[in-house]
Amino acid sequence: MESNQASLSILMFPWLAHGHVFPYLELAKNLTKHNFTIFFCSTPIILQSLPLPHHLPITLIPLHLPSPPELPPDLHTTKHAPPHLMPLLRDTFHASKAAFSAILASLRPDILLYDAFQPWAAEAATKFEIPAVHFATTGAAAYSFYYHLFLKKTTPFPHDALYLRPHEREALQQAADSNLRDSDLSEGLPHFTRSRDIVLMKTSRGVEGKYLDYLSLLCNKKIVPVGPLVSTTEKTDSDIMDWLSKKERSSTIYISFGSENYLNKKQVQEMAKGLEASRANFIWVVRFPLGEREEEEEALPLGFEERVGERGKIVEGWAPQAEILSHENVCGFVSHCGMSSMIESVYFGVPVIGVPFKVDQPLNSRVLVEAGVGVEVVRDDSGDFRGDDVAEAIGRVVEGGEEMRARAAGMREAMRGEEECAVAEAAAHLRRICREGFVKHDRCTIEKNGFGSTLFH
Predict the structure, then answer these.
(1) Which of 92, 109, 156, 414 is least crowded, fewest Cβ atoms below 10 Å from its Cβ?
(2) 442 in catalytic set
(3) What keywords does the record list, in alphabetical order (predicted)?
């Protein structure tokens, strides 16, 4: 604890998704060690789920969103809201600007940390002369790729390892058409441009060093990695861990696609075929959107669980991911390659078998492939994969992955070596900004070369 320095207050304001809220919470816990008190703002349904130690100076601040009949308060989180209500959730969140401004006026924190989906929060802070800093839970590789795409459409990205396949570009364009406004595109990435002179980022220089440097060059801000922010205190499931402990060392694959990504029925069938053909032990976390639990028994191939027997364990809904990945009997992670899962896998030295779906996930997967600690399941032009391709990718990690696991162990040590210093550097920057107070400053210069509603030629 930096007891010789005055305590300063931070208001933290993440987006309403599990993959955003928990990195913000881990950063909050780390910053309390550097003499910051934290106000943590989110919807009541999210705050109720947070595993918060009582001894830390973290105060939960509820943000009450408007509640149209089809979106009651228990759906004010992406974890519970069904896919067809996501646009309404986003709009409802934006409609909470006045309520958030009232929170700012009441708390008057020394600084605001805000997320990508609410650059308007930084605007609100300016009215109270509160400095604002963006904390990005997406990594530097994806951000540098997309920022380059916005700014330099006709110039190839300088690192060949990162690219998008046609079906990924099409999905990204559809997402942009439905989610981005022309006013957003006119200034590039507003959550970056409205941040002070730094951007905090959940990543490690040992994993994304060259992409951190290129992103800093593009946005004319210092990108400060805050480390992996991996929680190792989650609750356990003794049944899963007892099963895993009986397997041989480096013999078991863990399969999970995060809390908000779902395989369709065809993909579930092909994944099951691949696991059966691979002959590897596996723990498979199977999730379905809210309200579709009755389809779980029909989704798996007939007789699948009987045929795989004791070498496979199907888990519905939740598993202690960090504890599983840290176990010596796990040798690979079949993942969607969301940033948190990617970082956790590196943190525990586990190679990744990538099955990315959207936005940053394909780029995260290719960072791991470039580093030699991951493989990617082959897909066709429509983005579909076959069971044979799943089995082949798993086989490369289970049967011939000694070198890959050695590289993953090296990345693990590099990441963990940076961890403590990264948070200390972030804390020092935040303290400097608090000391300087609110300063009117120019936003980063954005080249006026063809911004518009289309991302791709």
Answers:
(1) 156
(2) no
(3) Glycosyltransferase, Transferase
Q: For 301, which DSSP code?
A: P
Q: What is the DSSP letter of 195?
A: S
Residue that has been written with the tokens 């044979």 in this structure: 388
pLDDT confidence bin for 446, thresholds 50/70/90? very low
Instruction: Compare 241 and 298 and report the one with higher pLDDT.
Output: 241
Residue 20 lies inside a defined structural domain of this protein: yes
Which residues are paired to 198 by β-bridges?
222
Domain containing residue 302: CATH number:
3.40.50.2000
The pLDDT score that the predictor gives to residue 454 is 43
| 201 and 79 together in one domain | yes
The answer to whether residue 430 is domain-embedded is yes
* DSSP H stretches of helix in 152-264: 166-179, 182-185, 190-193, 205-219, 238-245
Model confidence over 395-422: pLDDT tens digits? 999 987 788 999 999 999 999 999 889 9
Residue 435's pLDDT band (cuts 50, 70, 90): very high
Same domain? 163 vs 208: yes
Answer yes or no: do 246 and 264 share one domain.
yes
Q: What is the dihedral of CA 63, 64, 69, 75, to 10 degrees?
A: 30
Catalytic residue from among 20, 134, 148, 327: 20
**Statement: residue 193 has pLDDT above 90:** no
| Res 444 pLDDT > 70 | no
Of residues 18, 76, 110, 115, which has the active-site annotation?
Answer: 115
- Same domain? For 287 and 373 the reply is yes
- DSSP code, position 444: P
Question: Which range of residues forms the domain containing residue 350?
Answer: 238-409
Do both 161 and 196 map to the same domain? Answer: yes
Instruction: DSSP letter for 253, please.
Output: E
Q: Domain check: are 324 and 180 in the same one?
A: no
| Nearest C-alpha neighbor of 278 from the set 316, 348, 334, 323 | 334
Cα separation of 64 and 305, whole Å?
44
Judgement on whether residues 26 and 165 belong to the same structural domain of the protein: yes
Q: What is the pLDDT, as a whole number, of residue 154?
A: 83
Q: What is the pTM of this model?
A: 0.89
Both structure tokens of 180 = 């981005």
Q: Is 20 a catalytic residue?
A: yes
Task: Tell me what the pLDDT averaged over the chain comes to.
Answer: 88
DSSP 110: S
